[in-house]
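A note on notation is needed here, since sequence and fold are reported together in a single record. The reader may check this reading against the record printed directly beneath this paragraph.
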Amino acid sequence: MRVGNEVPRSIYLKRTRRNLVSRLKREKFNARYENWEIQEMKALSVEFKRRLKRKSSIAKSIINTNKKVNLYAPENIDYYSAKNYRITNLFLNNIADCILRAKRRVFLNFDNTEKISAAAMLSLLAQVEVLIVSSAVKGSSPISFSHPKSKKVKSILNQVGFYSLLKKSVGSVESFDDVNFWHHTSGECAEPSKARPMLDAISKEIKTSNSKKLYRGFIEAMANSVEHAYPVAGPCNKWWTFAGVREGKLVVVLCDKGVGIPATLPHTQSPSSLRKVLKMLNVDFNHIKDSAYIKAATALQNSSTKKKHRGKGLKDVMSVIRSTGEGYLSIFSNRGRFKYMGQNTAVESTINDYNTSINGTIIEWSIPLEEVTTV
């Protein structure tokens, strides 16, 4: 029997249940950039309450370890700000943990993604290929993904080979000038010639450059990178690269998923030469962070191969930046970053260190086209 304006019990329970489900949905959404297991538990809580609402059988297990883990890609897949770096790295580490440790398949949801920058995109592309090769998950590919809602993000994923890597039909794709300029390729460490077709295509856009010099400079930088990357044989000892001409500049991004410069530099350089360079950089030899190792690698005069022609690729890039006061060189490796940039005809360098690792090395540079002939 109702008294006055008292709400009927059935309506009260319905509202309470609806409010609880709404709260759980908010918690699930807010956890989208947390550890994947936290995300999954939030999703299971929502599903449990929904089953109660439908009076479904609770005896049937909600947890299905064969089910794909749904991972939301960040709004900004990007390494250039500290916040985006943290979120992007968590996303990549979640993918790896699901596949390698939990042996689960993952579904990458790009609904919220609005921006993808070059270094982080190349890192994602490389990570996905490594995981496909290394996965113990049986059957179909351990990774699938949704078409992005953003037309530009979809164009980027298509342009850099993400769709073809995961064998997904792309459908219609809108064209963007700041996306279409990218060329991409990859190869084993002993296959620098795989980059030749890409470099030939780029050289056609550089009327004042010498394609042989462009090829030599690029291959030298590639050799310097992979020299540090893979001390032992593995299933996917590769390099990946983007390159293109944009707004009067040559832009190159090169990535490997090896052990990183900070892990190998102490073993490839003599203690005396390394100590000398670190002292010159005002770094305490007993408290060396990853960024200091990266900066030291650019300052060392000799390559670990002991060959006179080696170790000059990135120095040539830095020389162009110094002479023009334009362009930049950026190196991420493990938990550190070194950046060398032109600023109004002057140059400056910065270093940063992070709490998480990119698990490899990403070298990126941009130099004025008219100076490419000096590289």
